[in-house]
Amino acid sequence: MSLGWGLRGYIGGHSFGAMIPGAMVALVLCRLLGISGERAALAAAFGAVGIGFGGEMTYGQTVGFARDGATLAWGLTGLALKGAVWGLTGGVFLAAGFAKIPLRRLAFALAAFAAATLLGWATVNLPKLIYFSNLADRPREEVWAGLLLGGVAFWLVLRDVPSIGRFARAGFLGGGLGFGLGGNWIFIGSQVGMASAPWWKLMEFTFGALFGAALGSAALALEPDRGAPKPMHSLPWLPASALAFAAFFAERLIPVRFPYVFLGCLLLGPAVRWPLTRLPIALLATAVAFFLDWSEYFADTDLGPAALGWGLGTAATFGFAIVLPRVTTTRGAFWLLSGVAVAVAMAKGAITSINAEHALFAFFTLALLALERTRQTA
């Protein structure tokens, strides 16, 4: 998850970018715990979408407070709180993805989540009663209180789901510690020179590492599958591509401050109802976002006509969608997403220059490969 969070900050921001570590951690947990087949695909979809919800929170100005000793305590408090909210929300949704929840009951839980998010945002965030951004300079509209209330509402509706409380508490603690402690890298960088090291990336790696470790500890209570591993399946490439593009562009058409909250809820219904949509939601909707993010970067850097950049992003999406139905194991799904994401990150870096961030991506990928090899030969 640490690698996934570093990638999220480099090849895709906002909620779709947060789907990268969400899908990666769900797939790794499934593989380590012997969970396979459509159960693993559902967990990946819920992990991607559920951890994506936290991406609606703005935190750039909160990080800015951590640069200055005079505002450091407030900045770290805000980061810890937002990380805890991110962890709780992602944790309860990931727990739900491991369970078998009837569609009608899930719909009620999702409606409660959306309604409570609106309520928390309207009563705390909108009037800025407790505010962790900069009132004096382009104040941002926060939604952490909304997501906190929404996550708790989702948890209460599904409180009898196995391990959901364990995931909620572990996510809250791991996310809070990860973001709160990780913010110290920004202060260190401000003291020694921000250009001297990738301090922001170290903050992201710290957040991902502690958040992922917390989710891993919660997952130890899950029941593994019985018998031989089962295969996962996906929609054919054309309907899978249509679903991914529709999800990406539909978000921009939802007229609220946090459109992904509603989009994510709409995606999880099909994931429960139609198993063939699970991998496209977990992997392809995640990939199309960073492919098109790269397309925008391509156009912004004047490497060629904007149409060429968008054409490359679209072609990459179709290529990913063609490969996806051939992926039937949690191992294959994990390496497809993480391998392609790292390749896109390295290609993006090669456009300008190789720097410390790309060396860290390479290091993390090699470390994962080494662990994979060790696991196979153990």
How would you briefly describe this protein structure?
The chain is mainly α and 378 residues long.
Description:
It contains 16 helices and no strands. It is 74% helix and 0% strand. By secondary structure, it is mainly alpha-helical. The chain is globular. Helix 5 (72-97) runs antiparallel to helix 8 (164-182), helix 8 runs antiparallel to helix 10 (199-219) and helix 13 (278-300) runs antiparallel to helix 14.
Radius of gyration: 20 Å
Q: Topology as H/E string?
A: HHHHHHHHHHHHHHHH
The chain-level structural class is mainly alpha
Average pLDDT figure: 92
Helix and strand topology:
Layout: H1 2-11, H2 14-33, H3 37-52, H4 60-65, H5 72-97, H6 103-125, H7 144-157, H8 164-182, H9 184-192, H10 199-219, H11 237-250, H12 259-273, H13 278-300, H14 306-323, H15 330-352, H16 356-377
Helix pairs in contact: 1-2, 1-10, 1-15, 2-3, 2-10, 2-13, 2-15, 3-5, 3-12, 3-13, 5-7, 5-8, 5-10, 6-7, 6-12, 8-10, 9-10, 11-13, 11-14, 13-14, 13-15, 15-16
Top keywords for this entry?
378 residues; mainly alpha; 16 helices; 0% strand
